[in-house]
Amino acid sequence: MKGIVFNLLEKAVSTEFGEETWDKLLDEANLSGAYTSLGSYADDEIVALVGVASKTLNLPPSDVLRWFGQRAMPLLFARHSGFFSDHAETRSFLLSLNNIIHPEVHKLYPGAITPVFDFGVDDDGGLIIGYSSPRKLCALAEGFIKGAAEHFHEQAEIEQQQCMHEGASKCVFHVRFHQ
Amino acid sequence: MKALPNVCSMSDSINDAAALNAEIARLNRRLLRATTARHEAEAIAERGLRDLFQRQQEIALLETIATAANQATSVEDAMCHALAAVCKFAYWPLGHLLLSDDGVGRTLHSTTIWHDESNGQYDALRALTESIAFGNGTGLPGRVVDSGAPAWVNVGSHDADAYPRLPEAKRAGLRSLFAFPVMIGTDVMAVLEFFSMKHQTPDEALLRLMAQIGIQLGRVIERNRTKTKLMHDAHHDPLTQLGNRKLFLDRLQQAQRRAKRVPGYKFSVLFVDLDRFKSVNDGLGHQAGDQLIIATANRLSSALRQIDLVTRGDEDDGGDDIVARMGGDEFIILLDNISCEQVPVRVAERLMSVMAEAFVLDEQQVIVTASIGIVQSASGYEDVKNILRDADIAMYQAKQQGRARWVMFDTAMQQKALRRLQLESELRLAQERGELWLAYQPIVSPRDGLICGFEALLRWDHPIYGAVGPAEFIPVAEEIGLISAMGSWILRHACRQLRTWQHDSGRSMTMSVNLSAMQLSHHGLVALVEQTLNETGIIAGTLRLELTESAITAAPEHALGILLQLKQLGVKLSLDDFGTGYSSLSQLRRLPIDTLKIDRSFVSQMDLHDDKRQIAEVVMMLAHILGMDVVAEGAETVAEVKLLGEMGADFVQGYYYFKPMRADAAEAAWRGQSAMRT
């Protein structure tokens, strides 16, 4: 996992719960917490941090990830506003993930492993998003989608129909956007 | 970090608390500085990495393009690779090739060559693109052609209306279009265009990169052009742009294979050679010669096309005729898939008729005829080169038979041609091997039967062929350029013999030596005769040079000049075979001739044919009126000799008296007469 993800998590936690909460999470997870955006760190570390947060907040880990994804979006915008500037709506922003945003991520963070999304349209014109990654962070992806919708002042109605945690080969979301 | 002070009292503790807060604030500021510095360092590193990544990608792209350009089997192949590589590099989902139609980029051909990463999502856009004629400023490719520079446009930009495909591109989820030219020099050879899913304004780096790719691909086109040109040049004659020998042989080979495979398939080869091209080239100059060759090429080609239309119409698949230039004034024609053996003859007749019209070269009218040799495919050739050889042989026969005609090859010709070739190589060796020798035929006065002189006659005894007649080998010697050397040898040899005999006999016997037409046109003849006279010391008047009428008529003015110079040396001149050609009396009067020789055809059996006798009588009278002597050739019977004597022939030459004989026999002959007289 790239250090930028830890940086975003630190910022989200510190902003909402204070810096000492972040320190506490690190202590309880027994992690040094020295993350630089360009570094690569073990996936276990993010799993440990989410686990501690889950216990502390008495929330399932997936809720923690969803919350993080949602909060991370404005932080990403502050750091890389260029990814957003070509888009007026969530839908087109999401559609540019594979072809525009992730390639850019690779340029900034060599060695980053980005998930692959596939897109389709359902009968009602809703977006079908497939997510596939060995990290199985579908909840984080869901949070990102929510956060992106908020950025574009839309509401995302998300329904997850398949999940890798339940043995599916990939996770599938049906998303409808409302102004 | 500084150690905290000890807590001792209240005021101390208040002071300490304040100090502690100040310390915390200071530490927070320090932490903020450190964090800010870290963020800045990360940002710098990110930019650096991004740039590095970008450079690496650019280098990889250029390498990919260069490799593809070097390995491409065709321009299209190289372009395909380039489209894919650029799409991959820039994350563009769709790329397209447009090629210049005319090689200078005025109009663009919207090709069906695409790089498309979608599953049919862009099909409508592609169909629309392929239906548009770009160029003249139409669409983005047109803009690129006009400016010779990269161009781009975004969906929703203020001038979007000028780009007919933007609405369809938008429907397909695309947001912008970028195109750049492939150039050779200042000419746009092709345009590569790409569609992007996001709005974009290419930066300097991208424009530079695409320009480099444009140059690379331009080199591929240039190299391909050069290759095509080399291929063309290797198979075509630069003067006429007709196919050359190599191309012709290739085509002939194909026809040959087809003839073996397809029953009833026939072809024919025509070998066309201009008559007297050399005199045009020498007389009017090489430039006129070249003009004549070009004009001939055009006439032959267009005649062949017309014939093709007339004989085949458009119902037949077959005809794929070709005219090629073999070099010099030789053209060769393949008549492909002909219906019957009459076709090549009809074609030859037609070609001769189109050639018969006067050419205008350098404002001069020039009449040129052609000789044509024909070979039919039915003759069962294995090697196509033999077809050419035989067509050449037949053409040569056409020349031999008087030019301006066609001759169909037959195998007897080949035997003849083969013998000729053998004679050629043997004749070159004959002189040094001592196979050539001179025979002497006495010339006799019919009044007393005494020998007055000799005619020197060249003989060739070949160890295998035996005696080869002069009628056969003299033309060969003329053709291969041996005649001058041979003529000099004869003249010297005969004059030396004459000196010996004159010395030994004490009599002023004469020696007649034949001159060929070619010797007459050779500028060294007068000098040679003069030198021979000086060397041998014989009296010039005892040397008689014999010429044929035809040798003089070929170039009468020139010949007259030479004859006058020879006369000035004091030698006598004889006109050989008089009466057999187009004997021109006015010409006879002008020529400084001393002796007329009456041909054997009038002498033989003249006692039995009145007409022969009368002609001989008239010629003799004519000669005497013009002050010339007469030698009658070929007298074989006593009756002929008696008649000739009565008519007043000055000299007689023939078997009745003597056959041509070797020097020792000839010497014995005159010695015998001398002995009788004494």
From TrEMBL, chain A:
It comes from the Bacteria. Residues 117-177 form the 4-vinyl reductase 4VR domain. One of its GO terms (molecular function) is heme binding. Pfam families: HNOB (PF07700). InterPro entries: H-NOX_domain_sf, Heme_NO-bd, NO_sig/Golgi_transp_ligand-bd, V4R. Coiled coil: none annotated. This is Heme NO-binding protein. It comes from Massilia psychrophila. The lineage of its organism: Bacteria, Pseudomonadati, Pseudomonadota, Betaproteobacteria, Burkholderiales.
